[in-house]
């Protein structure tokens, strides 16, 4: 998720604003502490121009590499 966000040139705060959630939600999703569900996952996928499946398949270990 982090890579998808960064590839769009967005900060976590910007992405959160556009999706309609708190910045902490974005950070928790990116760290693997939680997963976005339902409409938030769809909004994020549209914003990042990827499929919801791609967002969920990306592991935290991959992001930190």
Note down, in words, how this protein is organized:
- This is XRE family transcriptional regulator.
- The chain has one domain (2-64): lambda repressor-like DNA-binding domains (434 Repressor (Amino-terminal Domain), Orthogonal Bundle), CATH 1.10.260.
- The model is unreliable at 61-65 (pLDDT under 50).
- The chain has helices at 2-7, 12-19, 23-31, 38-48, 52-57, 60-64.
- The chain is built from 6 helices and no strands.
- It is mainly α and 65 residues long.
**Tell me, what's the shape?**
globular
Major sheet details: none
SSE pattern, N- to C-terminal: HHHHHH
Radius of gyration: 10 Å
Quantity of strands, as a count = 0
Level-2 CATH architecture: Orthogonal Bundle
Strand residue percentage: under 5%
Number of helices in the DSSP assignment:
6
